[in-house]
Structures are given as C-alpha cells and as structure tokens.
Amino acid sequence: MIRWINFPAIGKAERQREQQTTGRGTFVPLVFQPGEAFQFDWSEDFAVLGGERTKLQVAHIKLSHSRAFLLRAYPLQTHEMLFDAHVHAFRVFGGVPARGIYDNMRTAVDRVGRGKERQVNARFLAMASHYVFEPAFCSPAAGWEKGQVEKNVQDSRHRLWQPMPDFPDLAALNAWLEQRCMELWHEIPHGVLAGSVADVWAEEQAVLMQLPPAFDGFVEHSKRVSPTCLINFERNRYSVPASFANRPVSLRVYPGRLVVAAEGNILCEHVRVIQRSHKLPPQTIYDWRHYLAVIQRKPGALRNGAPFLELPIPFRQLQDQMLHRPGGDREMVDILALVLHHDEQAVLAAVEMALAAGVPTKTHVLNLLHRLVDGKTIDGPPLDTPQALLLHHEPKANVERYDGLRAQIVGGRHAS
C-alpha cells in the first residue's frame, strides 16, 4: 500500500513551529540611565477636525529611562514638522537627553550605509547640534532597538485615539494631547521602578541637559516673485510686497506659517494652507497691503483688483461711496496708503467716524486721523460762547474804504 506524503503541509508546519520558537528571535532587555536617551517614531492616526475625519501624522517622543512621553499631531511628515515636535517635546520634558534613537526616516537620513554608517541630513544635524544630543539610528528593519516608543504607538491607540478625538482644529487637538499625556504619566505605573511615570520623570528631569532657546526649525526654499507679486508653494500662491516683483526671495517654511525674506529682512508672513486633496482647486492668499504701491500708480485697478476684495468692512463701505464720484478712486487709494505711515487701526477708526458723520471724503478722514494721532478731542462737549463775542452788526463789503487810505498818503500815491 502506497502512502502519499504532503510535503508542502509538512513545510508549513515546520515554519509555524520555527516562528513560535527560535524564529521569533532572541533579545536582551535594555536599561537606560536617567537622562541618557529618548526614542522617536511616527504613526498614522485619525481625528475629527472641524467636523471632517482627517488622517494625521503623529510624532511620538519618549524618554527611555522615565518612560515619559509626548504625542503631537501634524498633517505631514516633513522636516519642519519633525523639528517642531522636538521643540515641544523638550519643552514638556524640561530638558534634553544626551542621545536620540531613531529609525532611518528620510527626514533624518539621506543615505543608509553599511552597519551603523549613515549620511545624516544637514538640516537634521543642525537641529541635533543646537540641542547638543547625539542622534543614533537603528539597523534597518530592527524596530526592537527602539521598542519603548514602538510599544507607545500601540498603547496610544486605545488610550488616546479610541474613541476618535473631535476638535475644531489641529491646535486644539495638540493642546489636548499634551495635557492628556501628562495626565497619563500620573496614571501609568513605571513597571520597573517604584512609583508612576511622573514620579520617575521628576527625578530624571534634574539630570537632563539645560533647555536652550527653541530651534528655529524652518526649511528654506528659493523663489522668484511673479509680475503679479505672487510666489508658489504646494500648489497655492501667496502675495509678496510689490517692490519685490520679478525678484528672487527666500521662503522659510514652518508647520503653520510661511515667512518671506530678502536682503536680510523679513518681508511678510502668511498662514500656511495645507490641502491634502488634489481634487480641491489651488488657493491664492492675498494681502492687499502688498499691492498699495501698484494702485498708487494705477488707481483704476482698485475697482476690480482681486486682492482688494478682502478689505476691512469700513474701507469697503467708504470705497462703495467714493468710487461713484469723479476722482474717487484716486482719493480712495490715498486713504488706503495711509496704513503705510500710520497704525491701521487708527486709520480704520478715522474712516468709521467719517462714515458716521456722513462726510466720506479724503480731507475729512485726514483731519480726523491727525486729530486721533495727536490726541486731540474729537467728540468733546459743545462750547458755550461768551455773550461778548457775539456779532451784533455784520460788516459790509465796502471797497471804497481803501480809497480813503490813498488820501492819507502824501501826494496821493500808492505806497508802492
């Protein structure tokens, strides 16, 4: 009798047995001294922001000795987000450990060599040098070398992300994450040392390196301003002062803002717009003040200029009245240009008072503005004029009186 042996089934059983025994690997428990190291990792999680379910990139930073941890959410895993996570983590921890343990993420490592050889990203190295800690990178596919933070990623799913957090915006979510993490320090026992995570962190904080000023963690890009005073970044366009049209500028990218600089000076700043979906149309973010130099030469552009659709309401109300008069566009441009030399709130206050008085003219706005700037009373009580100053007999216009002066001159000649 011939018996058939299913060799694939035997091979599968052997592989399963190996995975459950020696194939699972053998590891050495790690012990870290106070202030010796921290571990960093990213994860993807979801939260409801502004009523919309949003995918987030969450930075996890954990002290290896005390096991104190911080989570901070971002829309992207980019350099500026990475730097910002470190700034907030060191602030919450109250100091900087001597070493940071990372995997081989692209924002930190440009090239992975043999063994522990790494070509570290220059900007990441600048951040590490600023905080004076040594970056250490795990072997490829060796997550157990930073097992504490890997476990923290798993634990945070049920501690923080279930049920799904619901907040109006990312700033509110991060404020809650910071507060909730610090509350969990008091609730979670350390597991190895006596007391909670907060108790051990209080002892470790004393040996952390002193916290320096926050690292200015921007990423710089070279841009050229278009003839319409715009630069492009991440499919969106942002305005720049007109004096730098058709010129190169430096764009400094932060997690929540964009700073434009040139010739050693800061030109302007915008709130950064991040659109995850390419189905949405690109946005153009204007600052109407950037175009004042243009409309001073071309006042007719004020009427339909796209940047001026976002004028403050008092300016819009004044514009609606002035553009109906001849020369009103020129006067309106002169009023808008006042913000270049005076406080914008003072100019707005003068415009509001001119509108309330029913005298929406350039002359009246200038008069009110100068009185505001000089601190003079505008809405004072009416003056009670003394009776002695009242005019009882209105003088008549009589030019013959001047002929009488001629007779008093010798020879009847004019003084000239």
Structure, described:
Helix content is 33%, strand content 20%. The chain folds into 3 domains: 171 residues, Nucleotidyltransferase, domain 5, CATH 3.30.420; 61 residues, no CATH class; 79 residues, no CATH class. α8 packs antiparallel against α9. The protein is an alpha/beta fold and 416 residues long. The protein contains 12 helices and 15 strands. Strands 1, 2, 3, 4, 7 and 8 form a 6-stranded mixed sheet that branches. A 4-stranded antiparallel sheet has the order 9-12-13-14, with no helix packed on it. The chain has a 3-stranded mixed sheet with strand order 10-11-15, with no helix packed on it.
Write the layout of secondary structure elements.
Blueprint: H1 7-20, E1 37-49, E2 52-63, E3 69-74, H2 79-93, E4 99-102, E5 109-112, E6 118-120, H3 122-131, E7 134-137, H4 147-160, E8 166-167, H5 170-187, H6 197-204, E9 219-224, E10 230-233, E11 236-239, E12 248-253, E13 257-262, E14 265-271, E15 284-285, H7 292-297, H8 313-322, H9 328-336, H10 344-357, H11 362-374, H12 400-407
Parallel strand pairs: 1-4, 1-8, 4-7, 11-15
Antiparallel strand pairs: 1-2, 2-3, 5-6, 9-12, 10-11, 12-13, 13-14
Helix pairs in contact: 8-9, 8-10, 10-11
Care to give the gist of this entry?
The chain is an alpha/beta fold. The strands form four sheets. Strands 1, 2, 3, 4, 7 and 8 form a six-stranded mixed β-sheet that branches. Strands 9-12-13-14 form a four-stranded antiparallel β-sheet, with no helix packed on it. It is built from twelve helices and 15 strands.
What is the CATH architecture descriptor of the largest domain? 2-Layer Sandwich
Count of separate DSSP helical elements: 12
How far apart are the termini? 151 Å
Structural class: alpha/beta
State the helicity in percent bands.
Answer: 25-40%
Main beta sheet: strand number and arrangement? 6 strands, mixed
Order of helices and strands: HEEEHEEEHEHEHHEEEEEEEHHHHHH
Q: State the low-pLDDT regions, or none.
A: none
Average pLDDT level: 87
